[in-house]
Specification:
By secondary structure, the protein is α+β, with helices and mostly antiparallel strands. It contains four helices and six strands. The longest helix has 61 residues.
């Protein structure tokens, strides 16, 4: 009786051990192998990004001092409000006027989604609004000079108002309000 009972009990114990311990362990191993392949893909992407970073660093180091200064002027790491107002006012003074008003505001940093990741913009937008008093012909030349300045600027709004008061009297001046965006790297 024991000769038959011991193999049956051993077989039952082996089957029970398989379902209780070995099968869940195999399922865990399968999940870990799947995650391992995900980690391998992420590691490969990290290596590719590291290669790109190294290549770009080499390119930056190959730039001359003058080129780096030009790049910093074109897309500065930070926008100096006072310097920006001074630069625009200097151009306006070439046309016999100066800024009537000036306001600098930093756009709130927004994020954009790329797939499942949220990315921060690699730049910051600075909104600069100013008013000048000049005739239209001079204004076109003034805007042309602003376009040729080394700083990256996108004009977003121009508002013309005549110098007529509430009673209809001509005050002899045209006020032009300009708003443009300029940028800095983060």
């Amino acid at each position: 009786m024991f000769k038959i009972l011991i193999p049956i009990l051993s077989l039952a114990a082996a089957i029970g051990l398989y379902f209780v311990h070995i099968e869940p362990t195999l399922a865990d191993i399968k999940i870990i192998k799947e995650r391992e392949s995900e980690f391998d893909e992420a590691l490969e992407k990290a290596r590719q990004l590291e290669d790109i970073k190294e290549r770009l660093s080499t390119q930056i180091l190959s730039f001359g001092e003058e080129e780096l200064e030009t790049l910093e002027k074109f897309l500065p790491s930070a926008v100096d409000d006072v310097h920006l107002i001074f630069d625009v006012n200097s151009i306006a003074e070439q046309y016999g006027t100066s800024l009537i008003s000036a306001e600098v505001a930093v756009e709130k940093v927004t994020q954009r989604r790329s797939g499942d990741t949220t990315l921060e913009k690699p730049y910051q937008t600075v909104i600069f609004t100013f008013s000048v008093n000049m005739d239209y012909k001079k204004f076109l030349e003034f805007i042309s000079d602003l376009e040729r300045s080394i700083r990256l600027m996108d004009v977003s709004r121009i508002h013309f108002s005549t110098g007529i008061d509430a009673q209809g009297f001509d005050l002899g001046r045209n006020v032009i309000e300009v708003q443009f965006n300029t940028y800095s790297s983060n």
